[in-house]
Amino acid sequence: MTRNVGTFSRIASAAAVFALIGLAAAGCGQQQAAGNASAAAPSTTTSTSTTTAPATVNLSWEVVNGGNAQHSTWPFFSQDGKNPFPATLTLPANTLVTVTIKNYDDGGGQVPAPYAKVTGTVGNTETVNGQQETSFKADGVIAHTFTVPGLNLNIPLPAAASASSPAVVVATFKTPAKAGTYTWQCYQPCGTGSAGWGGTMATAGWMTGSIQISN
Length: 215
Ligand SMILES: [Cu+2]
Description:
The strands form three sheets. A six-stranded mixed beta sheet has the order 2-1-4-10-6-7, with no helix packed on it. A three-stranded mixed beta sheet has the order 3-12-11, with no helix packed on it. It has two domains: 1-53; 54-214, Sandwich (Immunoglobulin-like), CATH 2.60.40.420. The longest helix has 51 residues, at 2-52. The chain is α+β, with helices and mostly antiparallel strands. The protein is globular and about 45 Å long. The protein has one helix at residues 2-52; strands spanning 55-64, 76-78, 88-92, 95-103, 109-110, 126-128, 131-133, 139-148, 153-158, 167-174, 180-185, 208-214. Bound molecules: copper (II) ion. Copper (II) ion is lined by residues 75, 144, 186, 188, 190, 207. Copper (II) ion binds next to loops.
């Protein structure tokens, strides 16, 4: 009986030793896991700060005054200086967009008063040939506007000094955080018809169109 108890207690203490080794091994593994986690932490922090930095995009557009093969006299907005915009422009959401627009149209017209002001840009300003501007005379100065009523965005484009010397307008605006579709329109009636609202003013990609804000 006594021997049996002694044998049992030796077995029990051996089991306790194995248990301790097992704990030590587990502790080792846990330390390693913790080490990996702390090594991963800095890269997580880095990627977070990258995504919160404001995204910026620079675009170069033109207003072509000479038309194209389809309509030889219609002015139009262009990304390549040759063809009108696509019917739908795509812009990234939640982004500061700086657009440089070279306007080659040397004829100023009349716009309704609200469209003679720069609105919806950073600081409600734009530059024209390097000069900061916030508003213009409504009559005789502005050749076209790039206007997005749904974003309260209005970028007036003063007439060029001559057909070969464009007015260079630079403006920055922030796109909405949410995806959505907006309409853009020129508000200097530069089209056909008695009121000037026909032709290019009513043709998608020329003096009007859609903007898709995408995430
Ligand atoms: Cu126009």
